[in-house]
Amino acid sequence: IPISIDTRNARVAQAAIEAGADIVNDVSGGTHDPEMLSCVASMRVPMILMHMRGNPKTMQALTNYTKTDG
User: What local confidence, expressed as pLDDT, does residue 16 receive?
Assistant: First the structure.
């Protein structure tokens, strides 16, 4: 079972991969920490690039969902 680490910080990603994680999931799409992309590339592990509106403090306030009946 692959283990994913959710972080925006290169140092955390590196420590998690060294501890056995298999995948890095970055909700900032690699934009929060300027070392993230090169760090993950040097470790040669898959990376999931996510996105968010705003920053972690404001992203929930920037949602605009409408109810649909499917």
Answer: 97
Residue 32 CA, distance from chain mean position:
9
8 Å CB contact between 25 and 5: yes
Q: How many CB atoms lie within 10 A of CB 52?
A: 16
Name residue 24's beta-bridge partners.
5, 47
Quick: pLDDT tens for 28-55. 889 889 999 999 999 999 999 887 666 6
Q: Please check whether residue 50 is in contact with residue 30, taking contact to mean a CB–CB distance below 8 angstroms.
A: no
In 10 A of CB 9, how many CB atoms? 16
Token code pair at residue 16: 């998690």
